[in-house]
Amino acid sequence: MITFRKLASEVLDQRDVQGIRGIARERSRFRVHVESAEFIDRPIAEILPRDIRAWLRLTAEKDAIVPPTQAPRKLDRHTVNRAYSLVSVVFVEAVERDLIPVNPCLGVKQKRRTTDGDTVDKWSYLTPDEQRSIITCPSVPLEDKLAIRFAYGTGLRAGEQFNLELEDLHVGSEPRVHVRYSNPHKGKKMPPKNKKRRTVPLLPDALDAARTWLAMLPSYAPHNPHGLVFPTPRGCRRQQGKPLGRSKSIHAVYRAAGIKPRKGLHWHALRHTFATNLISGALGRAWRPEEIQPLTGHSSLELVMRYAHVGEETIKRAVAETNAVAVPSECIPLAPISERTLVAELDAMAFALPCADGAFS
Prior knowledge:
Elements: H1 4-18, H2 23-34, H3 49-60, H4 77-96, H5 128-135, H6 142-154, H7 158-161, E1 169-170, E2 176-179, E3 182-185, E4 188-190, E5 198-201, H8 204-220, H9 250-256, H10 269-280, H11 289-296, H12 301-307, H13 311-325, H14 339-352
Antiparallel strand pairs: 1-2, 2-5, 3-4
């Protein structure tokens, strides 16, 4: 009888051959969170839902690995869910092979944990002032500024931006960018996350950044064999997770620009910033979620709203605009009313009141 470990190894190898995005992270996730499961070496047919629940409960209580500067915390809920999804994928394969009749993960859910983190927004974005502070920071190299401006001006994912080819960038009439590729897999070009190509118009800030960068590109990367828009100085593809190069960090840019660190403020926050700028009207016109969705490539409007953090900024702006034109009530002059008018209005009100039996007097 095949064990869970054996079948999981075959499933991961199969997903690797299929070119599944993030297979390296899946292997790491399996090694860290699943290999320690009590059922790992048991026959696949002997694993029951209660075994999955017990493993899920123990996984949710594990301590996350955090830098010394951060407070200790438990594993993020999303990390646990991804590990659980990986376990479920193995059982789905077992069902398809007729090794078991039903996936034991069905109906098993992670219990919600009430923590301080539930009161903190897990997504982040740059405010207009923070965007300006990066662009005007003298210690941030120009090439990094342009890459960052292009990121929050187009909303491209990091893999999409740094695998963008010159033939897909148009800065002439109808400026736009065609998003066709993301991070390659074993040297093979891969489509974007949802496997759908899309076209993103270049709005003024992104267009200015693109034109400036294209003028610099020949001297920045004289040898560019892949025809990339944002290659490394040697003409190579940028490593996944290191958009500004091996020795640079987006967090160092944020610190140099005087931006205080907060949860979720990493490179992907630039994508959130793009959606937020549009939906909040920071660029001059407030876009509707259904207008933003084709540009970001999200699968649902709910995801667009999740990325577009407009609540606090929109409310602050609304309050400021209201305060600018509002007149305090004590300053509003009341029109004088005569005694005869007051008596007449009271008589009219009394006439309209119903009697005890429901009829009007």
